[in-house]
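Bit of a strange request maybe. I'm writing a small parser for structure token strings and I need a real example to test against, not something I typed by hand. Could someone generate the tokens for this chain?
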Amino acid sequence: MKLLAISDLHVRHKSNRQALLEVSARPDDWLILCGDLGESPDHLRLVFETLGPRFARLIWVPGNHELWSRASGGARGVDHYLQLVELCRSYQVLTPEDPYVLWQGEGGPAWLVPLFLLYDYSFRPAGMNKQEGLAWAAEAGIMCTDEFYLHPHPYPSREDWCQARLALSEERLSELDLSYPTILINHFQLRFELARLPRVPRFCLWCGTTRTEDWHQRWNAKVVVSGHLHMRSTDWRDGTRFEEVALGYPRDWQQSRGIDGYLREILPGPQQQLQGRHGPVWHR
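Reply from user aminoacidic:
Good idea to test on real output. This should exercise your parser:
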């Protein structure tokens, strides 16, 4: 019984939808879906109806695309997120709002901790405030679509929503028995240095919060799982493995390789960092 992960399926794209249908069944394994499955409830339904019968359990955390609210008059912000949570529960998919589960499969025991933390624009050069950071990104022609479609209602801003999610998650994590390690699962990065975006480096502004820089140590993380960057990688920090597991848009992955090649094994996974390896391990 293994724990696998993938994110950023972006099934709005035809080739990604086709790839979804080709995922091999692993009826004994659990699968983490680390956000950005699509941009609508129907996209989530497609993923859950396709993958639910092929795995023993699915775990979901929201990405920014799922949180977009395009239709006028529809649910926004927290209400929209909670509707997605209820949709997940109708398919028996674990969410950040559910009790944390103690994984007892290979590589365990370990707490599975799905998180929804958002970002607060703090992934920016030192000395810049938020507005200066937005101007810095705009100088490079970068403006995240979240600025138009990711509504924070009823919070006044996305960073206020982020702070509320951090406080809630810290409270829940503090109640865990940390004699067992955790598997921290969040769409966005937990460390600024790992928000590597060679093609669009200034997009880092929308990639996480510096409030979580030490969470891998603070919460005894064995593995941190994230997506969002479309830059698959494995990194080690302080004995913790960091896995970025995004598939991405059709241009970001090799269809000839097949989607199964992009499912990342989280547990049991490698047991230790390879001797002498300090940088990222890229999976292409």
